[in-house]
Amino acid sequence: MKNINRTEFQAFPYHLVEPSPWPILTSFALLTMTTSAVMYFHGFANGGELLTLGFCLTAGGMILWFRDVITEGTYLGDHTSQVQKGLTLGVALFIVSEVFAFLSVFWAYFHSSLAPTIEIGATITYAHHALIQGNRYGAILGTFLTIVLAILFTALQGFEYIEAPFTIADSVFGTVFFASTGLHGLHVIVGTLFILVGFFRIISYHLTDHHHLGFESAILYWHFVDVVWLFLFIAVYWWGS
């Protein structure tokens, strides 16, 4: 098959995105998941089933969306250097919006109030440096350990919810506790999916030492979740106790 040079048919370095159903479908899936989570916490019938459905729809939408983005960046060559700069800026703005989301939760807790942690940022940092150095085995190992620790963290968080002597409706503390840790837990799950996609892309030889923007963005997001957990642990578990 003949390799087609982009300059033969496009005079600019930007990517004209094709219409995609995944953003709007994923948005409705997230709406279903968050609404059903509120129903579940307040004891509504079938809240748990709807929450599971919303999570599955969200995960499915993300997987299909990732599939299209991977195809555009890896096989079609749509992610030029100029496009990569725009994607990096988009990830940075997304994390800024996430900062303000968590800031609102912390503000509610501090205003109303005037578990052991797992450090999983080190393993993904090791994987990143290994990938840059061309150490494919180290990148796979570090990413795999990150995924295992993330799943363990999520499982322990769920066990804590089951064993908690209070509920989200008991008090202001209960509301803020479940809202803040639940919001963080949701971000851990999303970050785990990001890292999982990167893991399979490393195995599939999609990523190289100089072409791994998606994986790098996932790592940046993961470190943001790490930092949020440090503040959350100090505020809710240490100071709140």
Automatic annotation (TrEMBL):
Pfam assignment, any one: COX3
Name used for this protein in its record: Cytochrome c oxidase subunit 3
Keywords on record: Membrane, Mitochondrion, Translocase, Transmembrane, Transmembrane helix
Domain Heme-copper oxidase subunit III family profile: 10-241
Membership in a protein family: Belongs to the cytochrome c oxidase subunit 3 family.
Organism in which the protein naturally occurs: Botryobasidium botryosum (strain FD-172 SS1)
GO CC, one annotated term: mitochondrial inner membrane
Topology term for the membrane: Multi-pass membrane protein
Reaction(s) catalysed by this chain's protein: 4 Fe(II)-[cytochrome c] + O2 + 8 H(+)(in) = 4 Fe(III)-[cytochrome c] + 2 H2O + 4 H(+)(out)
Any one GO BP annotation for this protein: mitochondrial electron transport, cytochrome c to oxygen
